[in-house]
Amino acid sequence: MSSASSTTTGAAKPSSTRAKPANKWEAAADWTDGRLGIYSLAKANLRKIFPDHWSFMLGEICLYTFVIIILTGVYLTLFFKPSMAEVVYDGSYVPLKGIPMSEAYASTVDISFEVRGGLLIRQIHHWAALVFVAAMLVHMMRVFFTGAFRKPREINWVFGFLLLVLGMFDGFFGYSLPDDLLSGTGIRFMEGAILAVPLVGTYVQMFLFGGEFPGHDIVPRFFTIHVLLIPGIMLGLLVAHLILVFYHKHTQWAGPGKTEKNVVGMPLMPVYMAKAGGFFFLVFGLIAVISAIATINPIWAYGPYRPDQVSTDAQPDWYMGFSEGLIRVMPGWEIDLWGHTLNLGVFVPLMIFPLVLVAIAVYPFIEGWITGDKREHHILDRPRNAPVRTALGAAWISLYLVLLMGGGNDLFATHLHLSINSITYFVRVGFFVVPVITFIVTKRWCLGLQRRDKEKVLHGRETGVIKRLPHGEFIEVHAQLPQKDLYKLTAHEQNQPVELPAQTDENGVARKAGVLTRTRAKLSRGFYGEGGQIPKPTAEEHHEITSGHGHH
Q1: What is the pairing mode between strands 461-468 and 474-479?
Q2: pLDDT in tens, 475-511
């Protein structure tokens, strides 16, 4: 066969996707589709089904606030000067006239009082950042408590965790840029934490600050990190996160007609996109209203940063409050080793801080190892049906709140007229005690709700109708639940604990289970053993009770 004939096999692709375009716009769209394949790609994805539930909008709030942050950030970048060069203020804000300050601070004051709409944009940018981190945390809580992180979504959970951590640090870099007294105190706090790291702390401080604190390079470097480095990484993670959401299909709550192999809901186009567009403007509008009536970060009231001053009531944004709480409640211990001082009062909290965060990232892999479950899961758990997981999440939240209280111990003391030492000691004890108590109470609460669900399935719901039997006994009449409610209360799976392998093999030779195997079996019993879940009612139990004469 000649080479010419071998290249002519197969049907040629049509040059147009339409027989005859109706107008020039359709012709242009047809020309574009013939080269980019947009139509076929859109046809496959724009009709994708998404379930309709209010909790799924938490992720949308994260996306919308991120867009708001980018839009307002671009506007602020046009007027902000990331420079530590000293100038004398001569703007319209009279109380600061004649005061030496950095160009960064002066330009931020000018944005607030000179640029048209500048103060509102600053407020929207800062409020959107706060809502962004809050929405990500609540969104991850929803994913955690419902088990939406299970296979095949473990990697997407890690992407979400990275977005949360990067959002927290980018927020810190952002409110450090104005070089006011409050942000300068926060940067000084960060420098002290860096210097507490043994061996490499001084080198990291030198590379970051370019010399002694505060130096002349810190604001330009923070500016580059804040507007370029971290947002670029976050944008890549966000795109990857959304691609995986499309690829894996959306999770859904259990209900009639819903299985692990389908999605019941509405198509992306046009219904879901119309609702999403309206929700975006609703979020934008609410943040704009909050920004217009609630002042945040009034840098003109703090004044420019001076190393010899520390502002009172200096508090970081709420998502960094728990890290400051670790520092404030840690005793000021120091150890002298080989002529060097190790500041444990700062170093120990600096090590605990990432551990508290990393616990979020690794949990899906730990639970998967404990349960040994390799199946794909697209149906969500009700939190009560996973008591140990729910209790662990509640314990983590309680630890976060205790440390947040430690980070604001001075405000609690002044506003509630309490001793700051008493608050500090309470947080020190609560760090170890409160999560344990929260775990126990939450687990028992979930088990109680499971027993209540079982009772409702077997005996129906209370009607409030009292009936007197022929022999004089008074009873309350119960009504059977609808089938959809029965399905909801019994659709969840109940895993069995992992059993230890036999002590002898098929040849009668003794074999001893390793430490990891025994640990896994013990943890599995804690998750799914006798005290970890209430056996759900069976069809036989339901039929026996509802068909008997004793059912009322």
Answers
A1: antiparallel
A2: 888 888 888 888 888 888 888 888 777 666 666 666 6
Cβ(111)–Cβ(299) below 8 Å: no
Those residues whose C-beta lies under 8 Å from the C-beta of residue 100, and which sit 6 or more positions away, are 86, 87, 88, 89, 304
3-state secondary structure of 467: strand
Residue 389 structure tokens: 């997981």
Average pLDDT score over residue span 384-408 = 93
- Please name which of 272, 382, 241 lies closest in space to residue 52, comparing C-alpha atoms: 272
- Is residue 247 predicted with pLDDT exceeding 70? yes
Q: Record the tokens describing residue 224, joined without a space.
A: 């580059």
Q: Which residue has the tokens 């909050």?
A: 290
Structure tokens at 246: 């499309």
C-alpha 72/C-alpha 227 separation (Å) is 12
Q: Where would I find the H helices in 372-408?
A: 387-407
Q: At what angle do helices 420-459 and 321-329 cross, to 10 degrees?
A: 130
CA-to-CA distance for 500 and 522, rounded, in angstroms? 9
Q: HSE on the CB side for 189, CA within 13 Å?
A: 25
Give the ranges where 146-272 is alpha helix by DSSP (H): 154-176, 181-195, 201-209, 218-224, 230-248
pLDDT digits (tens, 9 = 90+) for 147-173: 999 999 999 999 999 999 999 999 999
Both tokens assigned to 107: 């330009």
In angstroms, how far apart are the furthest CA atoms of the chain?
Answer: 102
Amino acid letter at 101?
A: M
Helix, strand, coil in percent for the chain, rounding step 5:
60, 5, 30
**Encoded tokens for 297:** 């970060």
Which of helix, strand or coil describes residue 494? coil
Phi, psi of 465 (to 5 degrees): -95, 125
Q: Is 50 helix (H, G, I), strand (E, B) or coil?
A: strand
CB-facing half-sphere around the CA of 199: CA atoms within 13 A? 0
pTM (2 d.p.) = 0.87
Listed in order, strand segments (DSSP E) in 397-539 are 461-468, 474-479
Contact at 8 Å (CB) between 88 and 99?
Answer: yes
The tokens for 370 are 């404990």
